[in-house]
Amino acid sequence: MVELDAVRAWHHIAVARWSRPDDEPPTPEEQSIFERRTPKETDSPYTDPVPLLPVAQLYVRDVPGLPVPDGMDLLQILWCPFMDHDDDIPAIHVRWRRADQVTALLSPPPEPPVIELDDYWPAPCVLHPEQVTEYPAPTQLPAAVRARVDAWQEETGHHYTEFAVAPGWKTGGWGVVSSDFADAADPPRCGCGTVTEALFTVGLSEWNEDNEGGWRPLEDADADDRKGYPPVGDPTMINLGGEELQIYHCPESYEHPPVTVRVYRTL
């Protein structure tokens, strides 16, 4: 476990330290916060429901094509700060709301005093959504098309997914249907039996290593030369063991619970 206040304080210190000389040692106060941030082996102190951690808040006005129920224009995604759930997947909660009804903001908002790991706390950041075209992963392609893709990869030395599957955090898309339990062409199914649709992906870096596929925004072309924290391509600092977490929704009813899948790799 780790104190949430210490995680937040350490984040602000890390941001500030980038403006100081590299050889300047941390202050006693900074060192104290660093030690408090170190996880301690202990059982969860909770036996009752705990406040959830906010992960993402998206408005229809900012994200074209965002799936929401009729009359709703705001999507909120939260998760449990502990991983003691089935398959070690964070327990996800999806909320669709009307922005004009979110008026009485809680200050301060409820939050757990400790979380399992600091990697589960999303560093605050502002979204700059960009609409892009994503193509199916190889296993989702018709056999004839996949054969042509294989031939193109062999001829050029490129990997299809570098260009076809958008990396990073995203809404919609085709979903990357590959995990520790499944490697199939179909997305997971809802409890009602309906094939689900990709809603949201908690991704890894916002672009591929060495910018393979060219997904890095032009505004961040100099990202490798920028000093700063968090890294430009990883603003949330979320780390789920090097995995992506994909959230799917049921097209039959928004009242059906979301389906989550952890993904070790993109196809």
Q: The biggest beta sheet, please?
A: 4 strands, antiparallel
Per DSSP E runs of 2 or more residues, the count of β-strands stands at 9
Gyration radius over CA: 20 Å
Structural class: alpha+beta
Helical amount among residues, as a percent range? 10-25%
Residue-averaged pLDDT: 84
> How large is the share of residues in beta strands?
15-25%
Strand order of the largest sheet: 6-7-8-9
Low-confidence stretches: none
What is the H/E order? EHHEEEEHHEEEE
Distance between the termini: 34 Å
Enumerate how many helices there are, as a single number.
4
Overall morphology: globular
Describe this structure in words.
- The structure is a single chain.
- With 267 residues, the chain is α+β, with helices and mostly antiparallel strands.
- It is built from four helices and nine strands; from the N terminus they run E-H-H-E-E-E-E-H-H-E-E-E-E.
- The relative contact order is 0.15.
